[in-house]
């Protein structure tokens, strides 16, 4: 194996220690940051993510509240809860775990969250601010985590060709916006490829930084990676290992193949995953700061 492993767990721990310090200062000023986590339904993966988010809050000193609504909840029922949380001064941040069940209008729910409590950075206002280059305030958790992985592993995107695979609102689009930022730690030339792109390999082969966020296990093979590239794997896919018959986690990148070609690579698990939560904790602390009177 050629590539250096970028240890997301260690880097996330570093960031969480910084966030805990921020929370300590806020708490001393009388503002204990509070995060409300809303889960609708019984999706097993979402249940794990939400549990990890609640645990992370406790670890950095953020107060958390968990709301678990039944799978058959209507959009109006979710909106009623959001209205209550918007009005509660002890709640600084609100997160609705995505995706909710299909009968819930997620776009409507996201729009209902007070933009000053939008710790996912999903609202029109916060996405707009991101696109016009705002450096402060809420950052999209996973893309921000990727930028911190690059920065703290000594891989400056400046002047590099970054290729993002995937165009979701949660990862692909905000990821491209952050890499493109005219700012220290960014300044990349950015290409976004997606399911409508013929010959994705043509672009990925030219990527100095390759970010895979498409949700397809082992999509990126070794021959799609430019020798010496930095490969960031955002994918978290559950697959059954044919050797053991057991479920395991697998990224969007064929790790064994890509690690032979890349100069640095993130593992799954232990790469981007812990960084998403670190980003969320940071945003919750920022929310507390915003509501400091
Ligand atoms: N589902 C997958 N990633 C995320 C995230 O970052 N935030 C929320 N709310 N739901 C998600």
Fold and architecture overview:
The chain is an alpha/beta fold and 293 residues long. The chain folds into two domains: 91 residues, Rossmann fold, CATH 3.40.50.10860; 134 residues, 3-Layer(aba) Sandwich (Rossmann fold), CATH 3.40.50. Helices cover 39% and strands 16% of the residues. It has ten helices and eleven strands. The strands form three sheets. It has a six-stranded parallel sheet. The longest helix is centred in the N-terminal third of the chain and has 21 residues. The chain is globular and about 50 Å long. The mean pLDDT is 97. The site of guanine (GUN) has 9 residues, from strand 4 and helix 6.
Key descriptive features of the protein:
Rossmann fold, 16% strand, 11 strands, 39% helix, 293 residues, 3-stranded parallel β-sheet, alpha/beta, single chain
